[in-house]
């Protein structure tokens, strides 16, 4: 199994197969507009601008499960991210990352890359999952991890070629 088996709704309301990102290095992040970590959007955008031509995609998944820090609708979220942080990496519709209504992608990611003490739940906004060019989750980063601190692992994965099909 890989992340390519999942689909998600884009922030514009279109269904997107994650297989469309096959061969790319992915950084999947649950985001929120009203969180103390929201300024990380700037760092994520900087990584995207620096490495997107090398095969990096950053996928943002807004989530309102942590103290209602993402109260807006998709149009408001998209406008906020673009206006305040210049975000132009792919953003998706608001989802749940925990519980019985968690998006299947996040259920998969948290099972494959458990957090502290083996916890499968996402603890807070801006938890980040790094996925290799073969669609396999390789590392989980806490909300406290600044995007710049993920640059070296990203560069390492970008230097590796995807496995042949």
Automatic annotation (TrEMBL):
tRNA-binding listed as a keyword: no
Superkingdom, taxonomy of origin: Bacteria
Swiss-Prot/TrEMBL keywords: Oxidoreductase, Peroxidase
Any Pfam family the entry gives: GSHPx
CDD domains, A to Z: GSH_Peroxidase (cd00340)
GO molecular function: peroxidase activity
SUPFAM superfamilies: Thioredoxin-like
Keyword flag Repeat: no
Domain Thioredoxin stretches: 1-159
UniProt xrefs under PANTHER family: GLUTATHIONE PEROXIDASE (PTHR11592:SF78)
Family statement: Belongs to the glutathione peroxidase family.
Protein name in the entry: Glutathione peroxidase
Organism placement in taxonomy: Bacteria, Bacillati, Bacillota, Bacilli, Bacillales
């Amino acid at each position: 199994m890989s992340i390519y088996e999942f689909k998600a709704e884009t922030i514009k309301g279109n269904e997107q197969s994650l297989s469309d990102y096959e061969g790319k290095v992915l950084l999947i992040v649950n985001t929120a507009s009203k969180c103390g970590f929201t300024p990380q959007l700037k760092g994520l955008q900087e990584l995207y601008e620096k490495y997107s031509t090398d095969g990096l995609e950053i996928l943002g998944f807004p989530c309102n499960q942590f103290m209602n820090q993402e109260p807006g609708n998709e149009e408001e979220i998209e406008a906020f991210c673009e206006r305040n942080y210049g975000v132009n990496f792919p953003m998706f519709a608001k989802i749940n990352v925990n519980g019985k209504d968690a998006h299947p992608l996040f259920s998969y990611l948290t099972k494959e890359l458990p957090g502290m003490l083996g916890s499968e739940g996402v603890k807070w906004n801006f938890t980040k999952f790094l996925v290799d060019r073969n669609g396999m989750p390789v590392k989980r980063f806490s909300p406290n991890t600044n995007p710049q601190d993920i640059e070296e692992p990203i560069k390492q994965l970008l230097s590796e070629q995807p496995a042949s099909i």
